[in-house]
Amino acid sequence: MYPFLKRIFDIVSAFFVLVLLAPIMIVIAIVIVLDSKGGVFYKQERIGKDQIPFGLFKFRSMKSNADKTGQITIGADARITKVGRFIRKYKIDELPQLINIIKGDMSVVGPRPEVAKYVQLYNKEQLNVLSVRPGLTDFASLEFINEQEILGKAEDPDKTYIEIIMPAKLALNKKYLEERSLGTDFKIIFQTIFKIFK
Fold first, then answer.
1. pLDDT tens for the chain, residues 1 to 198
2. Could you tell me the sign of the dihedral formed by the alpha carbons of 14, 19, 25, 26, in that order?
3. For the packed helices 82-89 and 2-35, what is the interaxial angle rounded to 10 degrees?
4. How many folded domains does the chain comprise?
5. How many other C-beta atoms lie within 10 A of the C-beta of residue 127?
6. Which residues of 66-105 are buried (b: 16+ CB within 10 A; e: fewer)?
7. Domain limits at 178?
8. What are the φ/ψ torsions at residue 64 (nearest 5 degrees)?
9. What is the pTM for the complete model shown?
């Protein structure tokens, strides 16, 4: 029953928020285009449920082709645009993922989807994370909401992510798998909203 109710909640809530915020998203799209060269959206391949790749949507917050110089964002990354800094701070860049939720690629709450480069490093137990739909937010998103700052202070950001942050995130993903319920999902949603706007 839980998976069915969760899917209904995902579709209804994502559609409602998408319609509600549509005017704001149109304004954001215009500002992004005026701020720097490039498209409005950024699409990146992530690994979803059952290890199936999908295209994750975001509002573009970096200069065009910025991902060619690295897949993680660190500190005051020079690749981030002026508007990008603002929409990243308030997680506005993640709003297009509501489309991913409606399509069925993602859920509102679930382990954040990772790029293939890092998924290839998962051990057998960690791959269990991919047994559920990835989410817009989760326990790891709450714990590492300042991940960009942490990596900005690291001597080797990629090594720090692989050896410290990624295992910690996967442990929190395991916690979610063990505790998942509608109650847990609502708790994570409210905590996420609070953390973003506090």
1. 889 999 999 999 999 999 999 999 999 999 999 998 989 999 999 999 999 999 999 999 988 776 766 667 765 677 889 999 999 989 999 999 999 999 999 999 999 999 999 999 999 999 999 999 999 999 999 999 989 888 888 889 999 999 999 999 999 999 999 999 999 999 999 999 999 887
2. positive
3. 160
4. 1
5. 13
6. beeeeebbbeebebbbebbebbbeebbbbbbbbbbbbeeb
7. 2-197
8. -60, 140
9. 0.92
Amino acid identity of residue 161, one-letter, is Y
CA 98 remoteness from chain centre: 11
Task: Give the DSSP per-residue string, 50-98.
Answer: GG-EEEEEEE--B-TTGGGG-SS--SS-TTB-HHHHHHHHTTGGGTTHH
